[in-house]
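Students often ask why we bother encoding 3D structure as a string. The short answer is that it lets us treat folding as translation between two languages. Here is a chain of 189 residues written in the first language.
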Amino acid sequence: MSKDKAADYFSRHQSDECHITSDNRVFHSKGTADGFANGLKDKAVVSYTREQFESKAEAPTDEAPEVDKELRFKNRVERLIALGLERIEDVFTNAETGASINAADVYEITDEEFEISVTPVVVIEPSKEDAPKVLALESLKNFDASTATYEDAKAPVKALAIESPSQFKVDLFAAIEAQKVIINTEVQE
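And here it is in the second language, the structure alphabet:
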């Protein structure tokens, strides 16, 4: 599906590259696609170049171009090593991140699958300054107005600077529920 999207993109735009997120949205720049993908459950971004499609257009339609699997495998191994993976028996592994890929998969998978498998997943740890906000967001996510106390409501309101018309329990609870709706809406988008 994403190859069809890329082909359509190149037929309508002059750009030499496009980037497609896991939900099949097409972006002009890698940074924008990565930024959007960070909000998705599947953060994969597949990139295509115009060159990939022009060379296919020149090939005869009744014959698929022959792929030199050995050369492709060698190039992929060089890339994995450059990314910090080392080969231990038939598995390429990164000791720091725990990322691994089977050598047979490196040999057999498509270029698109290979790109997805070597795209690093960035995990951002909250800073010490953000830790109270992270805890407050977690308590906000688990907030249950039917069992919460006034003190339970004050902490996330203060930490997240949630606006409330007053400090009365009913207003704090309403402000928290409204904030939960906003957060859930942003996550779904």
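Translate back mentally: The chain has nine helices and six strands. Keep this in mind for the problem set.
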